[in-house]
Design goal:
This protein is α/β, with parallel strands linked by helices. Helices cover about 50% and strands about 20% of the residues. Strand 2, helix 6 and strand 3 form a beta-alpha-beta unit. It comes from Alteromonas oceani.
Length: about 200
């Protein structure tokens, strides 16, 4: 059996879905407060002075701390069924289906958050490793269970969850530097649709 690892945003999709989900589900008050508090950090991120893996948890905390799990999950259902089909790359969806038809083990590995990714992956019958939102007493705490699933943490999460030695071949697909560590784990890797080499880092 082969293992196929797919990044989500930018690889399976044509654009970032994390930011859209946050903006679509945060209250007006949180959006205004976030715009006021986070604008300096967002500017630093745009200038490449603050990495996204450091910014995302701050945004997530502000957007989801104290929100009801059931409410966000219901909105995630709508997001998956109404919005995601508009941004899913048909060729990548086809690639996932081909892997499944060949009997390969398919896993989405993403820095995006769990509410909508769990629903999308369950609908396709594939597994998920992602930035999972922590729940307590029916509410989201705003924190991640195991941190932002990007960069080296993405690779470590794969190794901690999956026995890579049990697969005859590992194939990985990504589109940003945050995926490089994951791509290096694979025997065959693709970066933005083209063969990837560790020398490309």
């Amino acid at each position: 059996m082969k293992l196929a690892l797919f990044d989500f945003d930018g690889t399976i999709t044509t654009r970032d879905t994390y930011t859209k989900f946050v903006i679509s589900n945060a209250s007006i008050f949180r959006l205004i407060l976030g715009g006021f508090l986070l604008s300096p950090l967002i500017l630093l991120n745009k200038l490449k002075l603050l990495p996204s893996p450091l910014l995302r948890p701050v945004i997530t905390k502000l957007a989801f701390k104290g929100t009801k799990v059931d409410d966000i999950n219901q909105r995630a259902q709508d997001y998956v069924h109404k919005y995601l089909p508009k941004v899913i790359r048909p060729n990548m969806l086809c690639q996932i289906q081909k892997h499944k038809e060949f009997g390969d083990h398919v896993v989405v590995v993403s820095a995006s958050i769990s509410p909508y990714l769990k629903i999308w992956c369950k609908g396709l019958g594939i597994e998920l490793i992602c930035s999972e939102l922590e729940e307590k007493d029916g509410y989201f705490t705003g924190s991640y269970v195991n941190g932002d699933c990007s960069g080296q943490r993405k690779a470590d999460s794969i190794k901690n969850t999956i026995n890579l030695d049990s697969f005859e071949q590992v194939i990985a697909y990504g589109d940003t530097k945050e995926d490089h560590a994951m791509l290096k784990l694979a025997h065959e890797s693709y970066f933005r649709g083209k063969p990837f080499s560790a020398n490309d880092c």
